[in-house]
Amino acid sequence: MKSANTPAPDDICLDHSGHFVADADAARVALQSLGFTVTPFSAQTQPDPDTGEPRLTGTGNICVMLAEGYLEFLIHTADTAIGREFKAALDRRAGLHLAAFGAADAAARHAALQADRHDMRPLVHFSREVETETGFETAAFTVARLAAGVMPEGRVQIVTHHNAPAIWQPRWTDHTNGACALRSILISAPDPAEPAARFSRFLDRPAVQYGAGLRIPLDRGALEILPEKDATELVGDPVDAGSSCFVGLRIALADPSRLADRPGARRIDRSLALPFDPALGSGVWLFDPV
């Protein structure tokens, strides 16, 4: 079924962001306090190569599903390679460590990226059981991921959803704060041109000047790359001083003024900036009117 979250064949879209957090319950409370609807916890699995039986990947999640894109909040579930990688990142800091981009055929993108000499992990297929209003369905994904360490910002991947309606259920995309779309992931960088060049090559999309930084527009959504000084002023503190890192999310809301009385909230042009709750790590929300 065609939807806002099923890209056209040649499109590349901003699919979701990923927070690494220590406590899913604390993250849920923080998100609900802002007026987000949060999905039930789900442990991620993939087929065992020998038996075909589902096995834990090492992480599980809660999510904030938006009409366009979603926000993922991951916790540790098992001592696997991905689980250990997750714990190492979380030990450095809680917060944004993942950017996922949507494509119609992640397997084809994986092959093209390998041919272009990107250092890729093997293509993987994930699944998890999700409860719908009529029963349980399997949400399945094909994921093409860069090798660990290629992007200092964290885990960067391309995903194809094979059962998008099971993920984007209307009951989860209705938020009392009016949130409707993931517009951008923000990056802080000592030299914005450096990550812009890396992500432009990976995404096959050019970067354009955007204020003091750069922006990579996608077929839906974007990456915004800020000079570290500007990002620090926006967040309030350095997130990872001297390194390029994910620091914020730009979200479209029906009426950002609903959150204007939150501690730390301030207007920046038409946006409302709000620091992440400590349960979500260091970083900042930018809420834009629709």
How does this model look, in words?
With 290 residues, the protein is of the alpha+beta class. The chain has two domains: 13-167, 2,3-Dihydroxybiphenyl 1,2-Dioxygenase, domain 1 (Roll); 179-289, 2,3-Dihydroxybiphenyl 1,2-Dioxygenase, domain 1 (Roll). The chain contains six helices and 16 strands. The strands form two sheets. It has an eight-stranded mixed beta sheet with strand order 2-3-4-1-5-8-7-6. It has an eight-stranded mixed beta sheet with strand order 10-11-12-9-13-16-15-14. Strand 10 and strand 11 (213-217) form a beta hairpin. The longest helix is centred in the first third of the chain and has 12 residues, at 81-92.
List the helices and strands and how they pair.
Blueprint: E1 13-20, H1 24-33, E2 42-47, E3 54-65, E4 70-76, H2 81-92, E5 95-102, H3 106-115, E6 124-132, E7 135-145, E8 155-161, H4 164-167, E9 179-189, H5 193-203, E10 208-210, E11 213-217, E12 222-227, H6 228-235, E13 245-253, E14 266-268, E15 271-275, E16 284-289
Parallel strand pairs: 1-4, 5-8, 9-12, 13-16
Antiparallel strand pairs: 1-5, 2-3, 3-4, 6-7, 7-8, 9-13, 10-11, 11-12, 14-15, 15-16
Q: What is the count of structural domains? A: 2
Tell me about the largest β-sheet.
8 strands, mixed
Q: Kindly report the name of the CATH homologous superfamily of the largest domain.
A: 2,3-Dihydroxybiphenyl 1,2-Dioxygenase, domain 1
Report the CATH architecture of the largest domain: Roll
**Tally of DSSP β-strands:** 16
Shape: globular
Indicate the low-confidence ranges by residue numbers: none
- In what order do the strands lie side by side in the largest sheet? 2-3-4-1-5-8-7-6
Look up the CATH topology of the largest domain: 2,3-Dihydroxybiphenyl 1,2-Dioxygenase, domain 1
Beta-strand content = 35-45%
Please report the number of helical segments: 6
Structural class: alpha+beta
The overall pLDDT, averaged over residues, is 94
State the order of secondary-structure elements, H for helix, E for strand: EHEEEHEHEEEHEHEEEHEEEE
Which CATH class of the largest domain applies here? Alpha Beta
The whole-angstrom Rg is 18 Å
Distance from N terminus to C terminus (CA atoms, Å) equals 25 Å
- Measured as a percent range, the helix fraction is 10-25%
